[in-house]
Amino acid sequence: QVQLVESGGGLVQPGGSLRLSCTASGSIGSINAMGWYRQAPGKQRELVATTSSGGSTNYADSMKGRFTISRDNAKNTVDLQMNSLKPEDTAVYYCNANRIVYGFIVDYWGQGTQVTVSS
């Protein structure tokens, strides 16, 4: 099992910045990819950014150039630096990690942290 704990959400004005952090514990040696997803009220959960164990990254188009994901394998953390925030970035942000178990991808989720972008 993998446990994920997020921190860093809050209220920020449009154009501002926030940094989210996620710390993994448990069976961390077998973690494959880690990343961030978000879910706005009334919408489905969507990809924000992911990073593989090898360090490659993937971003949703609307986050490219504004968000940066970083991973520290030694500290078992994955951070999301969010700049130039817009009201439409308001959502609950979830940390994700996955493992490959007997050939199947098993996903783990944090409890979520609220990000509100408003003046």
Which labels suit this protein?
mainly beta, 119 residues, single chain, four-stranded antiparallel beta sheet, seven-stranded mixed beta sheet
Could you characterize the architecture of this molecule?
The protein is mainly beta and 119 residues long. 0% of the residues lie in helices and 59% in strands. The protein contains no helices and eleven strands. The strands form two sheets. Strands 2, 4, 5, 6, 9, 10 and 11 form a seven-stranded mixed beta sheet that branches. The N and C termini lie far apart (40 Å).
Total helices: the number is: 0
Rg measurement, Å:
14 Å
Approximate shape: elongated
Low-confidence stretches: none
Task: Describe the sheet with the most strands.
Answer: 7 strands, mixed
E-strand count: 11
What percentage of amino acids are in beta strands? Answer: over 45%
Q: Layout of helices and strands, plus pairs?
A:
Elements: E1 2-7, E2 10-12, E3 18-26, E4 31-39, E5 46-51, E6 57-59, E7 67-72, E8 77-82, E9 91-101, E10 104-109, E11 113-117
Parallel strand pairs: 2-11
Antiparallel strand pairs: 1-3, 3-8, 4-5, 4-9, 5-6, 7-8, 9-10, 9-11
